[in-house]
Amino acid sequence: MLKLFARFYFFIVIALISLSALLDNVLFNDNQEEEFLKLLAISLTQVQSQQQLQQLQQESHYQITLLPAQSISFPIAENSFEQSKYLLTYNEEGDAFIYTRFDNAQILQTILPAPERSGSGFFWYSLLFFTLLALLTALWLWPVWRDIKTLQGSANSLKQDGSIAAVSVPKGSSLRVIADALQQLSGKVQRLLNNQRELTGAVAHEFRTPMARLKFSMESIEPSQNKQSMLEDVTELENLIQEMLEFSQSEHHTPELAIAEIPVHDLTQQVIASITAHRQDSIKIHNNCENQLLIADGHFVERALLNLVNNGLKYAQHQIIVTTHKTKQQIQIIVDDDGPGIPDTLKEKVFDAFYRPDKSRARHKGGAGLGLATVKKIMSWHGGHCWVEDSGYGGAKFILEFPLT
Ligand code: ADP
Q: Would the pTM count as exceeding 0.70?
C-alpha cells in the first residue's frame, strides 16, 4: 500500500510541475518578449540626432524622452553602455525601460508598457491546467480502478469450499500484493474448511462405537425414570453423530439421486406422520397442490422438510403450518411457525454449517447447526432454492422452492 501511496504522490507532484512549466512556456513565453526588447534597444542606439528623434517620436507609440545623463545612476549606465550600448530594466508593474546614449550629455529613455495579461487569459489558463491535470490523473487511476474491480470480482466469487476465481492482476500493478494476499487467504480458508470437514467426519466416526457400547450397557440397568432420561440423551447424541457423519460425507461427494415423480401432498403427510403423535397436534397442513407431482429424490426432500418441521417444533410457541404451493414454474413447500423468528442479519447465515446464532438457546434445543446446511445442500442438488422470511404467524417462514421440471 505504501508503494501505491508513493506512486500516486510522485505522480501528482511531477504532473503539477510539468504541467505548469509546459503551459507557462506555451502561453506566456517571456523569452520572445525579451528578444524583441533587445532588438528594439539595439535599433534605438542608432538614434543620434534631433531629427531622428523627432521622427521616431511621431511614428512610434512608445513614450520616448531625452534625459540628462546624470539622472540615471552613472556607474551602472556606464558599465552597461560599454558592454551592450543600451540598458534594459523593468519596474514592478512589468513596464520595460530602455536607455540608450544620445550624446555625451543626454540619454534616450524609451518606455514600453507591460503586455496585458487579461482576467479571461487567467481563466483559460486555469481551465486548461485543471483539465489536463484531471485527464492525467484519470489516466493514472484507470489501471488501479480496473485492478480493484478484478479484486472485487474475485472476492465476490468466494465459493462454499473457500476457493475463489483466479485473480488476474498484471505483474507491475500496485495492487499485485493485495491480489497475492487474497489468493493466499483463499488457500488458507480452503485448508481450514477441509480440516474441519475431516475432523467432523473422524470424530463422528470414532464416537459411534463407544456410543453403541454405552447404549448396550444401559439396556441391562433396571428400568427407572433416570434410565429413561439417560436413554433419551444417548439417542439425541446418536442422532447428532449421525447428522455430522452424513454431512461430512455429503461434503465430499454428491450422492446419486433417485429422481422420481412424488405426489407433493403425500410427501408432506408422510413427513408429519413420521413425527411422534403428541407433537403432531401442533402441526397444520395447507395443501394447495392436489395431485401435483414433484420431480425429485423423495428420501432427500423428506429429510429437508423433516429438518424444517423439527426446527419448527423446537422454536414454535403453539403452531407450525406446512403449506404447499404451486407457481407457474415452481413448487414451494413452506414451513411457518409462531416462534421467535430469525433476525434479518442472520437470515442467510443460519444456512451455514455449524452456525448457531444464540449458543445458549441452540445448546438447550440440541443440534449441531447442520440441519439448515443440509437443507440447503439438498435443495442445490435439486436445482432449487431455500430461504427464510418473517412469518405472518409471528415466527420464521422457511421456503423450499423446487423447479417444476
Ligand atoms: P440446529 O441443529 O442448531 O437446529 P440448524 O441448522 O437447524 O441447526 O439451525 C441453525 C440455527 O437457526 C438454529 O440454531 C436456530 O438458532 C436458528 N433456527 C432454525 N430454525 C428456526 C426457527 N424455526 N425459528 C427460530 N430460529 C431457528
A: no
Atom of ligand 1 nearest to the CA of 337: 23
Cα 246 to middle of ligand 1, angstroms = 18
The three cell numbers of residue 318 are 403453539
pLDDT in tens, 344-391: 999 999 998 888 776 554 455 667 788 999 999 999 999 999 999 999
- Nearest atom (ligand 1) to Cα of 367: 2
Class of residue 171 by CB neighbours under 10 A (exposed 0-12, middle 13-18, buried 19+): exposed
CB within 8 Å of 341: residues ≥ 6 apart:
390, 391, 394, 395, 396
**E-only strand ranges, 117-233:** none
Query: Which element (helix H / strand E) includes 360?
Result: helix 359-365
Which of 308, 311, 365 has the most ligand 1 atoms within 8 A of CB, as the residue to mutate? Answer: 311
Going from the Cα of 363 to the center of ligand 1, the distance in angstroms, rounded, reads: 11
Strands (E), 91-161: 96-101, 106-112
207 touches 241 (CB < 8 A): yes
* Atom 11 of ligand 1, nearest CA residue: 356
CA of 226 to the centre of ligand 1 (A): 28
> DSSP string spanning 298-330?
HHHHHHHHHHHHHHHHHH-SS-EEEEEEE-SSE
Q: What span, in angstroms and rounded, lies between the C-alpha atoms of 261 and 331?
A: 13
Q: Which residues have CB under 6 Å of ligand 1?
A: 311-312, 315, 337, 339-340, 342, 350, 356-358, 362, 367-373, 395-396
Which distant-in-sequence residues (6+ apart) come within 8 Å of 267 by Cβ? 294, 298, 301, 302, 305
**What's the pLDDT tens digit per position in 102-128?**
887 888 889 988 776 656 667 777 788
Residues in contact with 264: Cβ distance below 8 Å, sequence separation at least 6, in sequence order? 287, 289, 292, 293, 294, 324, 331, 333
Spatial distance between the Cα atoms of 131 and 19, rounded to a whole number of angstroms? 11
Cell of 292: 401435483
Distance 314 CA to ligand 1 centre (A): 9
